[in-house]
Amino acid sequence: MFREYPRLRRLGLPTYKWEPDEVHLHEEFLEKPLHWKLPRMIFTNSMSDFFHEKIPFDFLDRVMEIAKSTPQHTYQILTKRSKRMMRYCERIGSFPQNVWVGVSVESASCKSRVDDVKEIRARIRFVSFEPLLGPLSELDLSDIQWVIVGGESGPNHRPCKMDWVREIRDQCVKSSIPLFFKQWGGARPASGGRLLDGREWNQFPYALPPQLLVEVARRHEHGMNGLTIYK
């Protein structure tokens, strides 16, 4: 995230006028989903962390209430702070049916997050291996409904090796877990393309509403071929 911050600040966007390590709660955006009638896939905190220590649980409760009142939308929450996510789940019992909960795992030192997310009571639990910065060897992906893999992009990006991605892909195929391979990465997200051994991997879990397929394909900047939903 910090690598992208200078570029985003130069765009003049009001939400990036602060320093990257500052936390600000934008309450004016909370009720936006209430006004979106057509179903949307909503990725929360794309440049932050939903379970940051400076975000009070009371505020997260308000987000969950919005999610419950907008069942037509699908919300994705991705975090590196898996322990705080577990504490929050203990507080609320379980996440709403339309909230997908995932953890980011970029290297072998973070593999414990996979075990943490499996403890979460949510309809869809997923793991994002992005940016993938090293080999992960064997993974226990039981009780995981979706896997995302991608290389790093932006200034001073670190390389993503094909063998690392293949290793995850093979485990997903063996366990019948849908895999979304996002990008190889590079100076820009599209620099390295999206092909893995000659094909795209555009698989989604069963909980993706069919009416969101068109939107997901349209929003993906590279285009999507062979988009499939696992039953």
Write down the Rg: 17 Å
Category by helix and strand content? alpha/beta
- Order of neighbouring strands in the sheet with most strands: 1-2-3-4-5-6
Mean pLDDT: 88
How many helical stretches? 6
Would you count the extended β strands for me? 8
The domain count comes to: 1
User: What share of the residues lie within helices?
Assistant: 10-25%
What spatial form do the alpha-carbon principal axes imply?
A: globular
What does the largest sheet look like? Answer: 6 strands, parallel
> Order of SSEs, N→C?
HEHEHEHEEHEEHE
| Low-confidence residue ranges | none
Distance between the termini: 33 Å
Strand residues, percent = 15-25%
Written description of the protein model:
The strands form 2 sheets. A 6-stranded parallel sheet has the order 1-2-3-4-5-6. It is globular. It is built from 6 helices and 8 strands. It has one domain (5-229). It has 231 residues and is an alpha/beta fold.
Task: Summarize the entry for a quick read.
By secondary structure, the protein is of the alpha/beta class.
Ordered list of secondary-structure elements with their pairings:
Layout: H1 5-10, E1 41-43, H2 57-69, E2 74-79, H3 82-92, E3 99-104, H4 112-117, E4 124-129, E5 146-150, H5 162-175, E6 179-183, E7 203-204, H6 213-219, E8 228-229
Parallel strand pairs: 1-2, 2-3, 3-4, 4-5, 5-6, 7-8
Highlighted features:
six-stranded parallel β-sheet; two-stranded parallel ribbon; about 25% helix; about 15% strand; 6 helices; single chain; alpha/beta; about 230 residues
